[in-house]
């Protein structure tokens, strides 16, 4: 998708605006460099992506081909809770890690794309929601497989679709409906995140490096004693022994990261909080 977006949407002489908030927008930039002109319209790299760009730091071009964002940043634990107003320029959002975690106004976006593997289903399925007029931008000389119109015209069956993955997605959609829909899922996610952030903020043993207004509801990152790597290593190992797995932070940031996607129950978050409190009593 990082390559297909500029191939389909880029208009000559109208650079793409990018709000750079971490690795996933950087990967999009790497593909833009091959086929289109772009400009960084806002970034938080100077703060190691521990916050999103503030409104006064964002400079959007109304004539941009489109504006690219990542709605949630898995590595750094930030999330757009209020999406930027891009005016006439279509807003394109990579929602791979938080789609269906909350209701959104789809009509506010030119394109929404997402890998299924976080909240929707197994890896190997990609969802693209594109405004009809934007699908008409692509040149007829674009390779057939890379043209969004190809997949629209063939009902997403230009090639054999990953039927098993789609079947699993159908089951997930039934589960979301049974839970009360996306609004109910949002309330669950807010409650889970609130419980975990409260535990982090309760004292000075744990520390959340992310600006509080930008904290992700999907990926909660934190440090121990402001970055005691050895103690964090023990935390991860002892948590795994207690049945709490995959808590090691990304290699580029270190620390601890708890991914609490839709399928993670409140009981799992409570178990982590209980472990955190016991660990602090032992080493605090």
Structure explained in plain terms:
- The protein is an alpha/beta fold.
- The protein has 2 domains: 4-172, Type I PLP-dependent aspartate aminotransferase-like (Major domain) (Aspartate Aminotransferase, domain 2, 3-Layer(aba) Sandwich); 181-283, Aspartate Aminotransferase, domain 1.
- The protein is built from 8 helices and 11 strands.
- The chain has helices spanning 4-9, 23-35, 132-135, 148-153, 163-179, 182-201, 229-241, 266-283; strands at 16-20, 38-43, 67-70, 72-73, 78-79, 91-94, 111-115, 126-130, 206-207, 219-224, 256-259.
- The protein has a 6-stranded mixed β-sheet. It has a 3-stranded antiparallel β-sheet with strand order 9-10-11. Strands 4-5 form a two-stranded antiparallel ribbon.
- Helix 6 packs parallel to helix 8 (266-283).
> What strand order characterises the main sheet?
2-1-3-6-7-8
**Total number of beta strands:** 11
CATH superfamily annotation of the largest domain: Type I PLP-dependent aspartate aminotransferase-like (Major domain)
CATH class of the largest domain: Alpha Beta
The helix/strand order is: HEHEEEEEEEHHHHEEHEH
């Amino acid at each position: 998708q990082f390559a297909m977006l500029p191939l389909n949407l880029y208009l000559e002489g109208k650079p793409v605006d990018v709000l750079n908030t971490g690795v996933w927008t950087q990967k999009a930039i790497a593909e833009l460099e091959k086929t289109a002109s772009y400009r960084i319209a806002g970034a938080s790299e100077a703060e190691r992506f521990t916050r999103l760009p503030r409104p006064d730091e964002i400079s959007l071009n109304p004539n941009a081909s489109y504006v690219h964002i990542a709605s949630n940043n898995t590595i750094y634990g930030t999330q757009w809770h209020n999406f930027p107003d891009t005016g006439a320029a279509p807003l394109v959002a990579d929602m791979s890690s938080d789609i269906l975690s909350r209701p959104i106004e789809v009509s506010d976006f030119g394109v929404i794309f997402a890998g299924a593997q976080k909240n929707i289903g197994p890896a190997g399925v990609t969802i693209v929601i594109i405004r009809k007029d934007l699908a008409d931008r692509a040149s007829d000389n674009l390779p057939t497989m890379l043209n969004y119109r190809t997949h629209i015209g063939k009902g997403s069956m230009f090639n054999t679709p990953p039927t098993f993955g789609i079947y699993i997605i159908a089951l997930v959609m039934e589960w979301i409906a049974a839970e009360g829909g996306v609004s109910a899922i949002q309330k669950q996610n807010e409650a889970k995140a609130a419980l975990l952030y409260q535990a982090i903020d309760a004292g000075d043993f744990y520390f959340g490096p992310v600006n509080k207004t930008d904290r992700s509801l999907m990926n909660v990152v934190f440090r121990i004693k402001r970055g005691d790597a050895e103690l964090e290593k023990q935390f991860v190992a002892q948590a795994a022994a207690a049945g709490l797995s995959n808590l090691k932070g990304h290699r580029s940031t270190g620390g601890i990261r708890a991914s609490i996607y839709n399928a993670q129950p409140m009981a799992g978050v409570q178990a982590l909080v209980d472990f955190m409190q016991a660990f602090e009593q032992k080493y605090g």
